């Protein structure tokens, strides 16, 4: 399975998200006033000027909304990373958010598939990859 090698952005706003991935959790921001999910994170809540953001642990399961296979490297030095699959995942219980993430390509994940997060070691950090859910 190919994965794009990149370092998380040097951005204080998104730092809690990347720290959560390292802890094998998905954490997303929510407006401290109205409670709406905010993705991508910003300085304040989605519709509430100056509202603080609360970072909350969310489900690591969801449904694939769309996906594409990347055949061409977009990052410098990334030719060895391709091909890989990226898609939008609608996380359970997180209304209005479609998280951009890598999807496993072995086995492939189809649009509409139920998936669960996997936290794959990659270099000096973990990388979020969604894999098919195991029915229980």
Description:
The chain has 136 residues and is mostly beta strands. The chain has one domain. It has 1 helix and 7 strands; from the N terminus they run H-E-E-E-E-E-E-E. It is globular. The mean pLDDT is 88.
Task: Quickly give the structural class.
Answer: mainly beta
Order of helices and strands: HEEEEEEE
How many distinct folded domains? 1
Q: Let me know the number of strands.
A: 7
Determine the N-to-C terminus distance: 26 Å
Query: Number of DSSP helices?
Result: 1
Q: Which runs of at least 5 residues are low in confidence (pLDDT < 50)? A: none
Write the layout of secondary structure elements.
Elements: H1 15-22, E1 26-31, E2 53-58, E3 61-70, E4 84-91, E5 99-103, E6 114-122, E7 125-132
Parallel strand pairs: 5-7
Antiparallel strand pairs: 1-2, 3-4, 3-6, 4-5, 6-7
TL;DR of this structure?
With 136 residues, the chain is mainly beta. The protein is built from 1 helix and 7 strands; from the N terminus they run αβββββββ. The protein has one domain (15-132).
Short key terms for the protein model shown above:
two-stranded antiparallel sheet, five-stranded mixed barrel, 1 helix, globular, mainly beta, 136 residues
């Amino acid at each position: 399975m190919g994965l794009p090698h990149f370092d998380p952005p040097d951005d204080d706003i998104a730092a809690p998200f990347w720290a959560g991935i390292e802890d094998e959790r998905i954490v997303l921001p929510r407006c401290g006033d109205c409670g709406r999910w905010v993705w991508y994170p910003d300085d304040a809540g989605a519709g509430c000027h100056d509202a603080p953001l609360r970072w909350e642990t969310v489900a690591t399961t969801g449904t694939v909304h769309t996906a594409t296979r990347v055949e061409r490297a977009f990052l410098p030095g990334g030719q060895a990373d391709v091909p890989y699959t990226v898609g939008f995942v609608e996380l359970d219980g997180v209304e209005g958010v479609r998280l951009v993430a890598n999807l496993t390509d072995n086995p492939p994940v189809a649009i509409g598939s139920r998936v669960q997060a996997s936290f794959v070691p990659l270099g000096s950090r973990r990388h979020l990859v969604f894999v098919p859910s195991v029915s229980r």
